[in-house]
Write a structure and sequence with these properties.
582 residues; alpha+beta
Length: 582
């Protein structure tokens, strides 16, 4: 999930490195090692303005949704920018520069007033949808209303606006509230101006409007959950076809005007997304050129990793980056006996993190973690609340806390996403560790496309199924402690479907510190609060940090404009990816 890590993956290379990486695509297409290992984290690999060809993405399952207002996976935030332009976005650039926030639909960054409680944006002129009709500020307002205030219909994205808009607790959403004025705390005084009135200061609001939830949606074309079948494009590409669970095809939007869009190119003549492709097949397709990129940015499979890293040519065609993500096990604080902190601490001490790291593919897939915040997110402070010899777990301490909980054994279930083999393997390693201290866990596997809507993200389901532990991977919604912590720790983020606070953690101290932090104009003080929240969460044993995630991506020699961007979990940036293959 964002499921959206937004942290630096690498320093920008020197000018000479950048130029070396920007060789012509045709020169590299038969020589995958030409640019070198990690080249896309330092510069643009195979830079090209060549038009034509089909860019092919493949994925082993399905995303939560292609609807920009109903998605919360980082790769969909990335991919949706092809057809959905939010107010702000991230620069399509390598490494840390990819964290640079730039105007997209908006003409400039937001203008703040009332100490950060009011934010005003002006749209660029000449903006049009795929059918040639003008894009207006009212369409942006409606997009926010449908994505944040109709949670019974569109539950998959974050609910920041619902929490922070001045009358967000009263508005019932556009499907129930038929008042044509809609949410009163979002004003549209004219077709190019939108004003957000918040219930408290929000110093990082520009980051919030970079979410695809602010991409415009014409109200007359919206039919709720079925909008995904006929999305109206505001970007450089539009939908040609949508076959649910099978394939999506995008083609150039003829009414997209590059004069209104300094970020996008329109190179490929077609973009195809093939769904439910076997993971090993995807790796083979990438190497043969039958696929341009794997959509999720989770990297190659273990067997492919071994063959690539054992070959000079193979290694030279990879990019290994941090993605500002944490792999962790969320402990369900509402599932007995894990409502007792001592039982949760027993889990903290029991897990052999080296075994988990090995199951995920070794150090190249991530460093062993001991904090909620990854090292590449602002607010991180090194700490380890539950140290163990060699990070291999401490059976003695685990049993001590189990005894303090009044238990000698526990029977529970642990969830993992069935199409993420590394996650399944990590869960299996955890089960082995827990068994040594008397905690007997059974693995339950669910598809990632429904993991949050139907299973781990549904508190009622976890209660009924005695699910005490849930495998999770999380990245910041934007590159700050708040962007990382809020949706997994704030009690107000708990929802009955699409829930990302899987632990159902509710601590008023943490809620208050989050609110204090986002209102604090002093960045240093804000970061200090993020570190305090991290410490409090670990003291409460809400989740078990496993690894600070790293990804190993295979860089197709046929792809052009390849960039591993910090803004989207170390993935390749999909905005301008092209190909030399027809």
């Amino acid at each position: 999930m964002r499921r959206s890590a937004l942290a630096a993956v690498a320093a920008i290379g020197s000018a000479s490195l950048l130029l070396a990486a920007c060789s012509k695509a045709d020169d590299n297409k038969d020589n995958p090692k030409a640019a070198g290992a990690n080249a896309a984290t330092k510069g643009v690999v195979n830079a090209s303005d060549k038009k034509g060809g089909t860019v092919v993405y493949e994925m082993s399952d399905v995303p939560d949704s292609f609807d920009p207002g109903n998605t919360y996976y980082a790769y969909m935030y990335n991919f949706s920018r092809l057809y959905a332009r939010p107010l702000m976005t991230f620069e399509p650039a390598p490494g840390e520069k990819g964290n640079t926030l730039v105007p997209d639909l908006a003409a400039s960054k937001g203008v703040s007033s009332e100490g950060g409680k009011t934010w005003t944006y002006k749209l660029r002129s000449g903006l049009k949808y795929q059918d040639g009709t003008p894009i207006t500020s009212k369409d942006v307002k409606y997009a926010v209303e449908r994505s944040n205030f109709a949670r019974d219909v569109l539950s998959l994205g974050p609910n920041y606006f619902q929490q922070f808009m001045k009358d967000g607790d009263k508005y019932k959403g556009p499907y129930k509230d038929k008042d044509p004025k809609g949410l009163s705390s979002i004003e549209t005084p004219d077709d190019t101006t939108i004003v957000f009135h918040l219930n408290r200061p929000f110093q990082e609001f520009d980051y919030l409007v970079a979410a695809p939830q602010t991409a415009p949606v014409p109200q007359s074309k919206d039919d709720g959950v079925d909008y995904v079948k006929h999305i109206v494009s505001s970007g450089s590409y539009q939908f040609q076809s949508y076959q649910e669970g099978k394939q999506v095809v995008l083609v150039p939007n003829k009414n997209w005007d590059p004069k209104t869009d300094p970020l996008r190119k329109q190179l490929a003549s077609k973009i195809v997304v093939n769904l439910k492709v076997n993971a090993e097949t995807i790796d083979k397709d990438l190497q043969s050129g039958d696929a341009t990129a794997e959509l999720t940015g989770n990297g190659v499979q273990a067997s492919t990793q071994a063959s690539l890293l054992n070959s000079a040519d193979g290694k030279a065609s990879t990019d290994n980056t941090y993605g500002g993500r944490l792999v962790y096990a969320a402990i369900n604080t509402k599932a007995k006996p894990f409502d007792n902190v001592e039982c949760r601490k027993a889990v903290e001490y029991a897990i052999d993190k080296v075994a988990v790291q090995t199951a995920q593919g070794g150090p190249i897939r991530g460093d062993i973690a001991s904090t909620v915040l990854p090292p590449d997110i602002t607010g991180y402070q090194k700490a380890d609340a539950y140290p163990s010899p060699g990070n291999k777990g401490d059976v003695t301490k685990a049993k001590e806390h189990l005894k303090a909980c009044g238990k000698t054994s526990i029977t529970t279930n642990i969830t993992a996403r069935s199409d993420r083999q590394q996650e399944v393997d990590a869960a299996t390693a955890i089960i082995s560790s827990l068994k040594k201290v008397g905690i007997n866990a059974t693995l339950k596997q669910y598809p990632q496309g429904k993991y949050f809507t139907d299973y781990a993200g549904v508190p009622k389901f976890t209660e009924q199924q005695n699910i005490g532990i849930m495998m999770m991977q999380w990245g910041a919604d934007w590159p700050s402690g708040y962007g990382f912590l809020q949706q997994i720790l704030n009690s107000k983020a708990i929802s009955q479907s699409g829930n990302t606070n899987l632990s159902q953690y509710s601590n008023s101290k943490v809620d208050d510190m989050l609110a204090q932090a986002i209102a604090e104009p002093d960045v240093a003080k804000r970061n200090a609060l993020y570190a305090q929240i991290d410490k409090q969460t670990m003291d409460d044993a809400v989740l078990v940090p496993l690894t600070y995630f790293k990804v190993l991506l295979y860089r197709s020699p046929y792809a052009t404009n390849v960039v591993s961007t910090a803004a989207f979990s170390g993935q390749y940036d999909y905005l301008n990816l092209g190909t030399t293959k027809k």
